[in-house]
Amino acid sequence: MFCPKCGKENGSQNSFCFNCGVPLPVTKENGITNEPENTNENVIAITPDTGRNADITIDSKTLKLVLSASGVIIAFLYLWFALRGILPVFSGVTAVLRGRVPYGILNIAGRALAVLSRLVMAAGFLLYALSRDDERDNTESLLLTVILCAFLRIVLLFSAQTVSGLSAFVRFGRFAFNGISFGKAVLYAFLAAGIEIGLTFLAGYRPFLGKTANDLLPEIKKLPGILLDETEILGRKYRERTARRRSPVKEGAYHDMSSQKTGAEPMNEKRSYLAFVLLGIITCGIYPLYVVYTIGRDVNILCKEDGETTPGLLRLILLSLVTCGIYSFVWYYRLLNRVEKQEENWGVTIQTFGSMELGTCWVAMKLVGILVSICGIGVLISCYADYLMFCNLNELSKEYNRRTLGWSGTEV
After folding, report:
1. In this model, does residue 51 exceed pLDDT 90?
2. Residue 61: pLDDT above 70?
3. What are the DSSP calls for 222-291, one per residue?
4. From the CB of residue 132, how many other CB atoms can be counted at a distance below 10 Å?
5. Model pLDDT, residue 307
6. Which has the minimum average pLDDT: 26-40, 68-82, 178-192, 259-273?
């Protein structure tokens, strides 16, 4: 029996949870007739048979953000190392052209298997981050995919090391197997999968709970079909977003505020990211602070009907200093998710990555940019996150000006 508040497992004879003291539901074993009271509106109710949350708390939503961001980060790291491993493949091609055919073919095969093993990991983690959806209840299936990708990575890498060892034997007369490199790769694969499993449980999910290996075998057999369906759903969402972006805005799909006497000020619909960067350098960081202030102010106006409020610049600066920058990620995450919720209200198409929330997409790109900045592409990824934010704000501002002030988009 599982506690409806904290999720801890209790004995069948228990009437109260040993961990938090909440009354447990009535069962044949304990014979208690009183039902547990809901002592907290935001408790996490665990459903033992599915391992899903009946109610997600605010803390759980924050952990879901970390869960998606971690999957994207791990996927990008494996993708980066896979791309780095493509160039050495051509050394085997060169060997073949020089007449060392057996050595060259084995060399190509070994390096190609190593690249493939990294791509498998990248695909598994990226699919988990982008496709996980509570409504479809696919967390357990996608997490099982991540675990299997880790094992497949190990198998492919072992094959790659073996084939590369054979190529060394053909060329130099001795078999070489890099055990240290293989051991590190195994450790990193299990560490990556372990991080995702741990974050999944911290977010309130309980995959595989109470299931044996025999129970999981039928699910493993269904995985190919599930993965094909998830890939198709991702592709369909991307096509729908692209079609909406290219199609004209339908009249009446947004709030018609033109007849209201709001005394509204025009929104800046031509925010330039290039100007943001250049003027930020010239003004030693002062101009970006002003831009962030205007963004927070404009979002509060654009999204005033959602009942939320984005804190101002002063609070952003102070709390970011106190939390060593962590609060800035929370601030942007909440702000951009407010923006995304206005997609239907204003009849615009919000640009994001796959099916990710706009806030999650921004945070993930920023974290990836920080982690891979030494590789040279991290800065570009981080800049693209801000560029995406500017584009979406410009679209909302343009529609706001058109509907509220009757502008055609050329006045600003």
Report:
1. no
2. no
3. HHHHHHHHHHHHHHHHHHHHHHHHHSPPPTTSS---TTS---PPPP-----HHHHHHHHHHTTTHHHHHH
4. 24
5. 82
6. 26-40
pLDDT tens-place string over residues 386-403? 888 898 888 888 888 887
Give the number of C-alpha atoms closer than 13 A to the C-alpha of residue 379, restricted to the C-beta side: 4
DSSP type of residue 377: S
DSSP three-state, residue 16: strand
Instruction: With cut-offs at 50, 70 and 90, classify the pLDDT of residue 408.
Output: low
Rounded to 10 degrees, what is the CA torsion of 245, 246, 250, 256?
Answer: 50
Token pair, residue 87, equals 């160039």
Of the candidate ranges 76-85, 98-107, 221-230, the one whose mean pLDDT is the lowest: 221-230
The alpha-helical segments, DSSP class H, found in 263-377 are 273-282, 286-302, 313-322, 326-341, 343-346, 358-371
What is the Cα–Cα distance from 8 to 170, expressed in whole angstroms?
Answer: 58
Name, in order, each residue with C-beta under 8 angstroms of 196's C-beta and a sequence gap of 6 or more.
Answer: 67, 70, 71, 74, 125, 128, 143, 146
Q: What is the mean pLDDT of the chain?
A: 78
In whole angstroms, how far apart are CA 227 and each of 137, 144, 146, 234?
Answer: 13, 11, 11, 11
CB neighbour burial string for 145-163, b if at least 16 within 10 angstroms, e if fewer: bbbebbebbbebbbbbbbb
Roughly how many angstroms between the first and final C-alpha of the chain, as a whole number? Answer: 62
> Over 80: is that where the pLDDT of 244 sits?
no
Cα distances (Å, whole numbers) of residue 181 to 87, 149, 187: 19, 19, 10
Measuring CA to CA, which residue among 134, 136, 124 is closest to residue 197? 124
Residue 317 φ then ψ, to 5°: -65, -50
Distance, in Å, from the CA atom of 340 to the CA atom of 348, rounded to the nearest integer, reads 10
Transcribe 119-155 into DSSP letters. Answer: HHHHHHHHHHHHH--TTTT-HHHHHHHHHHHHHHHHH
CA neighbor of 386 nearest in space, from 274, 285, 302: 274
Contact 38, 47 (CB under 8 A): no
